[in-house]
Amino acid sequence: MNKIKMLYEGKGKKLYSTEEKDILIAEFKDDLTAFNAEKKGSENGKGDLNCKISSFLFELLEKNDIKTHFIKQIDSKNILCKEVKIIPIEVVTRNVATGSLTKRLGILDGKVLPFPLVEFYYKDDALGDPLINDEHCKILGITENIQELEFLRSQARKINTILKKFFDDRNLRLIDFKLEFGKDAQGNIVLADEISPDSCRFWDKNTNEKLDKDRFRQDLGSVKLAYEEVLKRILS
């Protein structure tokens, strides 16, 4: 399978068409962005690590009956995936208060939440990806019906249950994470995008050391070394 034409370039990936209809190649980039791309950087090898981590986690979720766009990893920084029409909602699941939640609601940073909190954010860089509710989704025409929103929530909670235990067994706390979903050629809603330290917050279970993109956001040191540690624990 070969790259034919670049269809899209985002902050962390490039998408290419292939010889086969509805099948794409996703290439993971070394670029780093934060604060709606106001802060930019790059670390050599970051894309390779995110590709490996995402591939492993997509396979893990597929084994646990979560349907995804993932087909297979091609090489160190490219995966083969189904073409989907992305639903313009970032589905964020939070187990521990940090980041924007603490700023918005004044909840103490690091406080364990009484239940997993699922939030929707409208995917629009120009608007700063604002927090939205079900009624906003109806007004914006984002989804066809309320059942689709409930499906996104239920999938997020199910994925959280699977990943939280998986990482806990590897001495990592899954603090929060962002998911994106899309509709495949048959109209099925499947998990898409990536699952990596770019889209998840991981803290060491014993020290609370941050092993995710917050290292770039907060100038805490090498992103690559942190991502390498996450990959090492995933594969252990």
Notes on the protein architecture:
The structure is a single chain. By secondary structure, the chain is α+β, with helices and mostly antiparallel strands. It folds into 2 domains: 6-82, 2-Layer Sandwich (Phosphorylase Kinase, domain 1), CATH 3.30.200; 85-222, ATP-grasp fold, B domain (D-amino Acid Aminotransferase, Chain A, domain 1, 2-Layer Sandwich), CATH 3.30.470.20. It is built from 6 helices and 14 strands. Strands 8, 9, 10, 11, 12, 13 and 14 form a 7-stranded antiparallel sheet that branches. It has a 5-stranded antiparallel sheet with strand order 1-2-3-7-6. A two-stranded antiparallel ribbon has the order 4-5. A hairpin with an 8-residue loop joins β10 and β11 (131-132). α1 packs parallel to α6. The longest helix has 23 residues, at 146-168. The radius of gyration is 17 Å and the shape is globular. It starts with 5 loop residues before the first strand and ends with a helix. The mean pLDDT is 96. This is Phosphoribosylaminoimidazole-succinocarboxamide synthase.
